[in-house]
Amino acid sequence: MIKHGLLAAGLVLAASVPALAQMPPPPPGSSATVILPGPGPASPPPGMVTPSSTTTTIVIAPNAPPAPKTEDMPPPPSGPHMVWQPGHWDWNRGDTKYVWLSGEYTAPPTVAASWTPGHWEQRPDGWIWIDGHW
Q1: How far is CA 30 from the centre of its chain?
Q2: Mapping DSSP to helix (H, G, I), strand (E, B) and coil, where does residue 108 land?
Q3: What is the domain range of residue 120?
Q4: Is residue 1 assigned to a domain?
Q5: Quick count: other Cβ atoms within 10 Å of Cβ 121?
């Protein structure tokens, strides 16, 4: 599930795109958005969730996110097996600040799938969000 336009593969893409390495860092107190070419159309394996977009957006926040909030996980919805995806801080480029996105339940792509939560990672030019994945 691509919720915030970032892929875990962004690490590999960022390391393998020479133009990204040559970009100057954003000025202090600002953020940068980098659009990288994404995977082309392909036939995913049955039951696999794929992004509908063909680009990857990497948002570079100039400072570390606040500590995660403590969330009270509500009871799961009735019906098929649902997995809790915890909330996290998201960088709001328009207001140049972090905003909290609450956790939510989601259906896994397969019964055996397990969720790896996203996380913020520090880079030389700022902080980037690495999206969670199945």
Answers
A1: 19
A2: coil
A3: 10-130
A4: no
A5: 11
The DSSP letter of residue 116 is B
Reading the block at residue 38, the tokens are 């994404």
Structural tokens at position 130 = 């690495």
C-alpha 75/C-alpha 59 separation (Å) is: 33
Query: Length of the chain in residues, anyone?
Result: 134
How far is residue 53's CA from residue 61's CA, in Å, rounded to a whole number? 22
Report the number of distinct structural domains present in the chain: 1
H or E element that contains 13: helix 10-16
Three state DSSP letters for 40-93: CCCCCCCCCCCCCCCEEEEEEECCCCCCCCCCCCCCCCCCCCCEEECCEEEEEC
Give the pLDDT score at 91.
92
Q: Say what percent of the chain tops pLDDT 90.
A: 37
124 Cβ neighbours under 8 A, 6+ residues apart: 25
Q: Is 94 helix (H, G, I), strand (E, B) or coil?
A: coil
Q: Which pLDDT score, from 0 to 100, does residue 60 have?
A: 87
